[in-house]
Design brief:
The structure is a homodimer. With about 200 residues, chain A is an alpha+beta fold. Chain A is built from 9 helices and 6 strands. In chain A, the strands form 2 sheets. In chain A, strands 1-3-2 form a 3-stranded antiparallel β-sheet. In chain A, strands 4-6-5 form a 3-stranded antiparallel β-sheet. In chain A, helix 8 crosses helix 9. The relative contact order of chain A is 0.08. The interface of A and B includes residues 9, 11 and 82 of A. Chain B binds a DNA duplex (30 and 30 nucleotides) through helix 4.
DNA sequence: TATATAATTAGATATATATCTAATAAAATT
DNA sequence: AATTTTATTAGATATATATCTAATTATATA
């Protein structure tokens, strides 16, 4: 009797952290670091859980340079998992919905807070809307270029007169990095996100 | 998010003892004592596992006098469980197969060891086949009737000359009961079965 | 009412496991 | 060759759990 195999399969799924891992992976490949960050775990803990999921044939791995990418085992997806795990596969659809909501919010902010000439009418008071507006502006800067404070001010004034406030917000939300009077765009991964809390 | 419910479900199935319990219950209702005995566990341990299975909605209970009968949750059976548990529901089919194998063996014995006139050609040497032949003969006697040894001998001689051996086998395998010179059919439940060991 | 039977609850113990930090390994970049 | 980055292994710890015995509860029977 292959009882042990069945027990192992269910043990793999009998832990909330591992289910959340599968949930994340249902949205696409991820490497260890990213998983650890998203789940607020140490890297070794991710390794630990990955081992269990792997030996239950729930995930596959791919090594590229020295980083390991995890993904759901395609076999597992094809079979559609079991009823109790349907939510994992439904998650994609749910996120789509979420995403389109955010897309709509963004469009609404661009329409309502920016004038036809592209200038910012006023700084939104709502946190999420403010972030959307700031990001829209900061995206016009080029990555890898070092700007002086004066250049930044001139740039911002194209959009809004209160360049001091906006400049401060750029730093505060980590859109930019400042050293003395030099400003530079941060990588997009560092930008504060307005994603709804799930 | 109902993560906890899903975790609970898989935890319930992530233990060999509980899977064996489900396996036993797939063959029908059982009470606590019987489960404890079959699984070589104490009664409290059975209670412990039953609680987990119950809270995952895998089994149902019914109280009769002071004994509690467990059975698989019909909901669970109807949904057919999940792929990994199919073996539980396959057990019935397996038994069926087993039964038809025995049916075939019986037919073969009747064909090969009994002549056209119904007499036993020879006493089978194989244990299972011998039991089949003996049972076939003994079934011709009427239940509830008390036979003398002489009557039994006459009866057996219709089938085979060595009535002494066969008479002794009748007693040995508890097809009949003997008191002094009186022979009587035992109830069928007492007859030695040739079922294969499972 | 006393006794017997089946089950549950309480409490103890040993094993399993989820998590962390520290150390090591593997691979790439400087 | 030295440093950086990502991952794994080792070891420690705390929590969870499978199992037992002993005590308690629930029900039935003498």
């Amino acid at each position: 009797m292959q009882l042990d195999k069945i027990v192992g399969y269910h043990k793999a799924l009998a832990d909330p952290t591992r289910l959340r891992m599968l949930l994340l992976l249902s949205q696409g490949e991820m490497h260890g670091q990213a998983l650890a960050e998203k789940l607020n775990l140490s890297q070794p803990t991710v390794t630990h859980h990955a081992a269990k999921l792997r030996s239950a044939a729930l995930i596959k791995e791919r090594r590229e340079k020295n980083t390991v990418y995890f993904k759901l085992n395609p076999e597992f997806i094809r079979k559609g998992g079991e009823a109790s795990l349907q939510f994992i596969f439904d998650k994609g659809a749910e996120d789509m919905e979420e995403e389109s909501k955010e897309q709509k919010l963004k469009e609404s902010v661009l329409r309502n807070f920016f004038a036809k000439d592209g200038r910012l009418r006023q700084i939104p008071a709502q946190y999420k809307k403010k972030l959307i507006a700031l990001q829209h502006i900061v995206e016009q800067l080029k990555p890898g270029i070092v700007y002086s404070e004066k250049e930044i001010n001139t740039f911002i004034k194209q959009y809004h007169d209160d360049c001091a406030t906006i400049r401060r917000e750029f730093i505060m939300h980590q859109f930019m990095y400042r050293e003395n009077d030099n400003y530079e765009l941060n990588p997009r991964e560092m930008w504060t996100k307005w994603e709804s809390v799930k």
